[in-house]
TrEMBL record:
Protein name: Sodium/potassium-transporting ATPase subunit beta-1-interacting protein
A GO CC term attached to the entry: plasma membrane
Localization, UniProt: Cell membrane
Membrane topology classification: Multi-pass membrane protein
UniProt keyword annotations, A-Z: Cell membrane, Glycoprotein, Membrane, Transmembrane, Transmembrane helix
Keyword Ligase appears in the UniProt entry: no
Family: Belongs to the NKAIN family.
Subunit structure: Interacts with atp1b1 C-terminus.
Transmembrane feature ranges: 34-55, 62-86, 147-166
């Protein structure tokens, strides 16, 4: 019963991770955030692999999923530091989220709750394919929306890591106990082998 509870809980966590990652992927696409788009894609693949391992009792897949979650926590921690401009990180100078290919920012910058966007006409500060805007009246700045999203990802990843380790340990213990009672033991029960040769006996009448 404990194994079933652990598997069900892990599947619920993976489902929440999948929904959160897909939602995040949509908004990153809208904001042309290429680095997060790539990371989200890898995360979605890892979560699907973790769900498959949970359903199919493949503890090696769960180990891979757990290792990926460690990297995922590191990536989201970097995003938090980037948007809070920790250390020498600067959003005005470093366009890491777009691989320095464009000046696009987070989609939430212009579409946050309560934000009022006003275009600045005839501005010489913008490149040819961009425009300058002013954003005011936001109930929550886009930096904090991105930080909150990354914090949710970290929280789900921590729960997923714990349950992935637990369920994979249960799967491995079950395989070891099955080997011990002769499930894969070469010295266990072996069915009688059929002979391919027929022995002819004389017939007396």
């Amino acid at each position: 019963m404990g194994k079933c509870d652990g598997r069900c809980t892990l599947l619920v966590i993976c489902s929440l991770q999948l929904v959160a990652a897909l939602q995040r992927q949509v908004f990153d696409f809208l904001g042309y955030q290429w680095a997060p788009i790539l990371a989200n894609f890898l995360h979605i693949m890892a979560v699907i692999l973790g769900m498959f391992g949970t359903v199919q009792f493949r503890f090696r897949y769960l180990i891979f999923y757990a290792v990926w979650l460690v990297l995922w926590v590191g990536w989201n921690s970097f995003i938090i530091c980037f948007y809070l401009e920790v250390g020498s990180l600067s959003q005005d100078r470093d366009f890491l989220m777009t691989f320095n290919t464009s000046l696009h920012r987070s989609w939430w910058m212009e579409h946050g709750p309560g934000c009022l966007v006003t275009p600045v006409l005839d501005s010489r500060m913008a490149p040819d394919d961009h425009h300058v805007i002013t954003v005011s009246g936001c109930l929550l700045d886009y930096q904090y929306i991105e930080v909150l999203s990354s914090a949710i990802q970290i929280l789900l990843a921590l729960f997923g890591f714990v349950y992935a380790c637990y369920v994979s340990k249960v799967f491995q213990d079950d395989e070891d106990s099955f080997d011990f009672i002769g499930g894969f033991d070469s010295y266990g029960y072996q069915p009688p082998q059929k002979s391919s040769h027929l022995q002819l006996q004389p017939l007396y009448t």
